[in-house]
Specification:
Largest sheet of chain B: 6 strands, mixed
CATH class of the largest domain in chain B: Alpha Beta
CATH architecture of the largest domain in chain B: 3-Layer(aba) Sandwich
Number of helices of chain A: 12
Shape of chain B: globular
Oligomer: heterodimer
Helix content of chain B: 25-40%
CATH architecture of the largest domain in chain A: Orthogonal Bundle
CATH class of the largest domain in chain A: Mainly Alpha
Order of helices and strands of chain A: HHHHHHHHHHHH
Radius of gyration of chain A: 24 Å
Largest interface: A-B, 17 and 19 residues
Number of strands of chain B: 9
Strand content of chain B: 15-25%
Number of helices of chain B: 8
Helix content of chain A: over 70%
């Protein structure tokens, strides 16, 4: 039912898509094989750079002694909790600042200072306040993610289409109606992008926290591995993190597409 | 008389300056009348509408309306919510005033049907043409059953052909629903073809330069009105009043 030209056009799109996917997989396969070959042939020092086989073996042995999912779960739990709390607190505070512009103007320099302060420096204080445990790790992740969420989401709220605001004003809408009818739904995409930024920041916070204080988690694995000079363990931790982080990123993409 | 404006005056304050936007603006609107306000760009036409519908406060002057007068405001552009269906968009004003009832919903459905948008009830704004979107925007305004409509350059976002067609549509809808309307526009021919009276404003500060009672032979719809033999005469008069300096 389509003309030949149109079929050609469709085929080109399909081919392009196929080749993109092909090269994406090709690169990772090439990297793994290259890495393994270099290790087998002695081009690289496997003590420092490890090798795919060694990493796989480490994962299997972690799995066999039952600690693999424990560590993954601990990190996943900390990331999820801090992500959810951080995003919610950020949005709530951004909403308050949107509603009370006077307050927003007053707090502006404080937010700027807090945003530029390297939050890792707060580590020692956080440990003293929250103790050497999960609490400290979550608090660290919150410190890193909340401020930037507030700034980004507030900025987005303030940029809501002015003529739509006037439209609602002409219907005599209250502030809360304005927020739930217009500001929140029209900024859905901005909130999702804030979430994408957040998930990365929360990972940084959690791993930082696990480096400082922890008895379990992927960050702990990496730290422990480096202390006993087991670089296989360190590499394994990094690979596990990469997988986890990308899975959570795709989870957000999935949620975005659902709506 | 449903609306009476007396000595309206509006000053805008900025840090450097104060700007007298509107001065000495008085006129009365009769029931069922369609009044157009034209004037050079930036003369404060829209300011007058914002004040009339309560979005802005006048610096001085009085506005008296008939008791319980309800008004609806139609802005430049349609401002439809892309994330809601056409039907939901039309209910916006009702929802905000907690007036969503089976009757009001039925009224909105009737409006959509009358104006040829029935099948798009569950579509999203992005699926509609510019003219259709503008009609939805008008239905959204009409849904709250206003007695008086304020139209702020309602067609300026449309291309010329749709502009003619939609202004025809909107005019018919307003007349059919027996509403009064005040329309601000920079388009002289649009004003003459639609309005019963045209108010010409001067450069800032806006004061009334002239008011024309538009009397056309065989007055009917805006597109037909453009063919009336008096059309050019009015156009000429208003053009001279506006006094464009390019």
């Amino acid at each position: 039912m389509f003309s030949i030209e149109h079929k050609k056009y469709l085929r080109n799109i399909k081919l392009r898509k196929f080749f993109i996917r092909f090269f994406q997989i090709f690169i990772i396969v090439l990297l793994i094989i290259g890495w393994q070959l270099a290790a087998d042939l002695g081009f690289i020092n496997t003590f420092i750079s490890s090798s795919p086989k060694a990493i796989l073996n480490t994962i299997i042995s972690l799995y066999n002694d039952g600690s693999l999912f424990h560590h993954l779960w601990v990190t996943f739990y900390e990331v999820t909790v801090s992500f959810v709390i951080g995003t919610l607190i950020g949005i709530v505070i951004a909403t308050i600042l949107w509603r009370f512009k006077f307050l927003a103007n007053i707090l502006d320099p404080y937010l700027t200072v807090l945003n530029s302060l390297p939050k890792v420096s707060l580590g020692p204080i956080i440990i003293i306040i929250a103790g050497a445990g999960t609490g400290s790790i979550i608090l660290m992740a919150l410190f890193i993610s909340v401020i930037i969420t507030i700034i980004n989401v507030h900025q987005a709220f303030m940029n809501t289409d002015q003529s739509k605001i006037r439209l609602l004003q002409s219907f005599k809408a209250t502030h809360s109606q304005m927020f739930f009818k217009l500001v929140l739904p029209s900024n859905f995409n901005n909130i999702i992008s804030a979430c994408k930024v957040n998930i990365g920041l929360v990972f940084i916070g959690v791993i930082m926290g696990e480096f400082l204080v922890s008895k379990a988690g992927v960050g702990y694995l990496i730290m422990y591995g480096s202390q006993i000079f087991n670089l296989n363990l360190v590499m394994t931790g990094i690979i596990l993190l990469a997988i986890m982080a990308s899975l959570m990123y795709y989870l957000i993409l999935f949620i975005e597409k659902r709506f | 008389m449903i609306l009476s404006i007396k000595d309206l005056r509006k000053i805008y304050h900025t840090k450097q300056n104060e700007i007298l936007a509107v001065d000495n603006f008085s006129f009365d609107l009769k029931e069922g009348e369609f009044v157009a306000i034209v004037g050079p760009s930036g003369c404060g036409k829209s300011t007058i509408l914002s004040i009339l519908c309560g979005l802005d406060k006048p610096s001085s002057g009085t506005i008296t309306t008939k008791d319980n007068l309800k008004f609806g405001y139609m802005l430049q552009g349609d401002n439809l919510f892309e994330w809601q269906t056409i039907f939901k968009n039309c209910l916006l004003g009702l929802e905000l005033n907690n007036e969503v009832t089976p009757e009001s919903k039925a009224y909105v459905r009737k409006l959509l049907k009358t104006y040829g948008l029935e099948e798009f009830e569950n579509a999203y704004p992005s699926n509609l043409s510019g003219g259709m979107r503008q009609r939805v925007s008008l239905i959204r305004t009409l849904a709250t059953k206003p007695d008086l409509l304020f139209l702020d350059e309602p067609f300026s976002a449309l291309d010329y052909q749709s502009r003619l067609a939609v202004s025809d549509d909107v005019y018919k809808i307003i007349k059919k629903e027996k509403k009064s309307a005040i329309m601000v526009t920079h388009d002289i021919s649009e004003a003459i073809s639609m309005a019963d009276r045209v108010i010409v404003l001067s450069q800032r500060p806006s004061t009334i330069k002239n008011i024309y009672e538009i009397k056309l032979t065989d007055k009917s719809t805006p597109i037909n009105n453009r063919k009336a033999k008096e059309f050019a005469k009015y156009y000429d008069l208003i053009w001279k009043d506006i006094d464009y300096h390019v």
